[in-house]
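Sequence, structure tokens reproduced for reference:
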Amino acid sequence: MMWDPLGTIGNARWIGGGQWAGKTTVARILARRHGLTVYRHDYPASRSHLDRAAAAQARAGGRVTGFDPEWAFVQRSPQAMAAAVLAEFADRFEWALDDLRALESPRPVIAEGWGLRP
């Protein structure tokens, strides 16, 4: 059994899908209509997860240099970019589960984001 002291994960509703598909809009509408709490994985969570990624890189013996847009978007091929993003999904999903376990809300949670792919 997975540790979930507040039962947040078991009561979460999930919205995933492609970028710019309307997940955030739908989550906001559902939250207003049904009194849900929204967990937005893509923007706030992904920013806070950068620290975890840097720590993992340091533990693996890599040099932590921060985000380099030149390397990320110009020097790598599209195939390399796609492979890197897909490889990160497993770690980021675990971090999202950690976030949800720590989220205290008296209402059910709707978790949305394109990165919510185990």
